[in-house]
Amino acid sequence: MRNRITSLLGVAAAALAVTTPAAAQKAPLQKLGKGEGQVDIVAWAGYIESGKTDKAFDWVTDFEKATGCKVNVKTAGTSDEMVALMNEGGFDLVTASGDASTRLIRGKKVQPINIALIPSYKNVDPRLQKAGWHTEGNVHYGVPYQWGWNVLMYNTKVFKDKPPTSWNVVFEEQNLPDGKSNKGRVQAFDGPIYIADAALYLMKKNPALGIKDPYELNEAQYKAALDLLRAQRKIVGKYWHDAFVQIDDFTNEGVVASSSWQFQANILGSKKQPIATVVPVEGATGWADTTMMHVEAKHPNCAYLWMEHSLNPKLQGDLSAWFGSVPAVPAACKGNKLLGDDGCKRQGYESFDKISFWKTPTAQCKTQNDQCVPYHKWVSDYIAVLGGR
């Protein structure tokens, strides 16, 4: 935990560059040239597969053969890590969620994208094409990749015939259907954006707080969310951010319930573990990820070739099946053997408007008269929560 808190302290400064609109950026690339031989990408775990984990899931090998661009991937566990890595530089692309993309744009770490050089952009889901987390002033700063929600993953042997219906099983101490306390057997995400999950829970549990958007919290609402998280700290056995570590925790360490991604549930299911997921009555936060290019990308041609490749319906469908996400290209929802024709519906395609997508909290906010707590405060306060303060 100490190493994790130190890591969060190291990225706290990156949270500051979110309130000022982006200054003039460099002009986007106007013409593609020859590939430079490689492309370096910061990505979420499971997002860029080359068949090493499972031979059925490989959208890298053919791309490398066709373009001569070797794909190098650096996995990041949280949006803050992605922002920190992009601030350090040395990468061409990042698969940024909404709580990172705004910071990258306004921090001038990513460059505008010329969608005319990406022919498949026209096939992107219209709900995503001009989404606010990757466009500003009608300027595109990335290419939509995948989206989905943060599910409640649980052990079916523990919950038996009483599956959880509320997030309260991870927020409040209680006995579970197996007769044992949840204390020490539940997890929570260790990124500051998790404060929004607490706020979302409170929207239904305590409507008198007046929370209208879990990312737009005034001081009183924010305090209530922190108080809930401090109480949760007493029952959380471990905070997670590494998907594969969480998979091991559910398999070998006695964890029985946690916020998670469908990706972990799919892997555990493939290993015949007693795992299921649910979206509780309070709803769910979620993520919509965008492939964005560093302002000083050393391999821009390979980067553009990858962005075009990333919108291939076969890749989109395979990735959706692998990660438990929803494709950015609707055509991927039909005819994919790995995903199945009901895969997109199962994973939330029709619930887009019900998801509270990750975004960067700022002081200027519509729902609370521009009196919201900004993200840099979320970072420092969540570090305190993790440390038991």
Task: Draw up the topology in text.
Layout: H1 2-11, E1 38-44, H2 61-67, E2 70-76, H3 79-88, E3 93-96, H4 98-106, H5 126-129, E4 135-136, E5 139-140, E6 143-149, E7 151-155, H6 156-159, H7 168-171, E8 186-189, H8 195-205, H9 219-232, E9 236-240, H10 243-252, E10 257-260, H11 262-270, E11 275-278, E12 284-293, H12 300-310, H13 313-323, E13 326-327, H14 343-346, E14 355-357, H15 375-386
Parallel strand pairs: 1-2, 1-3, 8-9, 8-10, 12-14
Antiparallel strand pairs: 3-12, 4-5, 6-12, 6-13, 7-10, 7-11
Describe this structure in words.
This protein has 389 residues and is of the alpha/beta class. The chain has two domains: 213 residues, 3-Layer(aba) Sandwich (D-Maltodextrin-Binding Protein, domain 2); 163 residues, Periplasmic binding protein-like II (D-Maltodextrin-Binding Protein, domain 2, 3-Layer(aba) Sandwich), CATH 3.40.190.10. It is 33% helix and 17% strand. It contains 15 helices and 14 strands. The strands form three sheets. Strands 1, 2, 3, 6, 12, 13 and 14 form a seven-stranded mixed β-sheet that branches. It has a five-stranded mixed β-sheet with strand order 9-8-10-7-11. It is globular. The protein starts with a helix and ends with a helix. The N terminus is likely disordered.
